[in-house]
Design the sequence.
């Protein structure tokens, strides 16, 4: 292991973000728990009507787990989801979310499914997602809400389990980042209005609480859903620089002396 790898590993341990391979295993396990399944179902139900109204040629999902796609309801034909690590039998392409093998301005819709919560460098990932998004394209961001009952619960939980190892970036901080990247926020909604219970018996009330929170538009949901648009750079018309015409001097002919004949 070189110095860079040791340094990155140390930073991850300090921040609590596991390496890519461990993160995929932890996410896969969490999405199979009653709590993880309920979170996945609630977020997918919230995203479906939004994604169904966005069109284009290419849609990209970053974050989440490689076996769980959130793009099923999208009418976009080409759905892209990279696998972060290789494993036997894998059919997806492998790529680093912070160094995407995609052309600049080539994707119509980008979905960040808790990608900013579980990455070492959130700024870098967000810049890379913005780079591949075409001007006028839409970016959807799903993240854990720091100022919610989920964020409050995180203060008293051990940080060695999911989702409590996530970064829980505040909405205000994230919107500042978006503004710097020329991304205009179109709408902000909230979900996960049910408490972060672990047991299936308690989670049976989750759907009822979710409907109530959505009806009240409560900003205290455990997750935020931000829809933003990449601004189109204004076109500056190229006006030819014509040389000014010389000003014409007004000349008046001298009046001729006319002799009047008297017949």
Sequence:
């Amino acid at each position: 292991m070189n110095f860079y790898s040791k340094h990155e590993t140390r930073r991850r341990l300090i921040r609590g973000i596991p390496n890519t391979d461990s993160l995929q295993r932890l996410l896969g396990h969490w999405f199979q728990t009653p709590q993880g399944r309920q979170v996945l179902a609630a977020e997918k139900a919230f995203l479906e009507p939004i994604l169904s109204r966005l069109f284009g040629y290419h849609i990209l999902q970053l974050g989440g787990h490689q076996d769980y796609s959130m793009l099923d309801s999208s009418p976009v034909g080409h759905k892209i989801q990279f696998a972060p690590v290789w494993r036997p039998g894998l059919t997806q392409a492998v790529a680093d979310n912070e160094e995407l093998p995609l052309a600049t301005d080539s994707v119509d819709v980008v979905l960040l499914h808790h990608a900013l919560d579980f990455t070492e460098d959130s700024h870098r990932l967000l810049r890379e997602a913005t780079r591949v998004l075409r001007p006028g394209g839409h970016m959807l961001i799903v993240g854990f809400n720091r100022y919610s009952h989920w964020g409050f619960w995180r203060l008293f939980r051990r940080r060695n389990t999911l989702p409590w190892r996530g970064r829980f970036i505040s909405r205000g901080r994230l919107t500042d980042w978006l503004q710097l990247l020329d991304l205009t926020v179109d709408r902000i909604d909230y979900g996960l209005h049910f408490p972060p219970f672990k047991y299936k018996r308690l989670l049976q009330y989750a759907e009822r609480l979710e409907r109530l929170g959505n009806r009240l538009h409560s900003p205290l949901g455990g997750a935020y859903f931000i829809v933003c648009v990449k601004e189109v750079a204004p076109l500056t018309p190229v006006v030819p620089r014509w040389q000014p015409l010389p000003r014409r001097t007004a000349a008046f002919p001298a009046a001729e002396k006319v002799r009047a004949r008297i017949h």
In short: The longest strand covers residues 133-144. Helices lie at 3-15, 20-30, 34-51, 122-132, 149-154, 171-180, 200-203, 206-216.
